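In the design runs reported in the main text, the only information available to the sequence generator was the tokenized backbone. The following block is the verbatim input for one such run; it is reproduced so that readers can re-run the procedure and compare outputs position by position.
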């Protein structure tokens, strides 16, 4: 199986929430970094947490793959994260209750493979787009200073 085929298979595991299959895509010391929230997950006990979290928060979670670029053992994927926020979403700052809003957010994933499995997965979802689509950024008015006050 080519590196692109392997990464596409890993996405299939996440798509159907096959947690053991997803974990098996990683080396035992593999790392998953969710760059949108600055959290690193290491090893088989942790690399499934983001898939479980988003699967709980978006029961219809879908990853729409647009472009895949391969350079040796590095695979880069442009995609969109799509789904309806119908469950609790864990964030480092706390739990975001379901909003019922739909997410269709851009993302870029970078996989570094070793020995045919994922050694490092850097996931760059657009956190501001996600939070904006879920209606969370609408409450920023309560904490932002008016622009006129800043220029004084």
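Verbatim output:
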């Amino acid at each position: 199986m080519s590196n692109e085929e392997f990464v596409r298979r890993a996405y299939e595991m996440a798509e159907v929430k096959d947690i053991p299959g997803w974990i098996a895509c990683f080396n035992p010391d593999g790392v998953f970094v969710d760059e949108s929230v600055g959290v690193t997950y290491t090893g088989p006990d942790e690399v499934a947490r983001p898939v479980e979290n988003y699967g709980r928060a978006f029961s219809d979670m879908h990853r729409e793959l647009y472009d895949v670029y391969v350079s040796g053992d590095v695979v880069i994927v442009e995609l969109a994260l799509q789904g309806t926020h119908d469950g609790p979403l864990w964030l480092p700052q706390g739990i975001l209750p379901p909003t019922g809003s739909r997410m269709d957010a851009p993302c870029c994933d970078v996989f570094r493979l070793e020995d045919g499995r994922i050694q490092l997965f850097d996931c760059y979802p657009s956190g501001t787009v996600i939070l904006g689509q879920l209606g969370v950024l609408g409450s920023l008015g309560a904490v932002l200073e008016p622009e006129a006050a800043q220029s004084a």
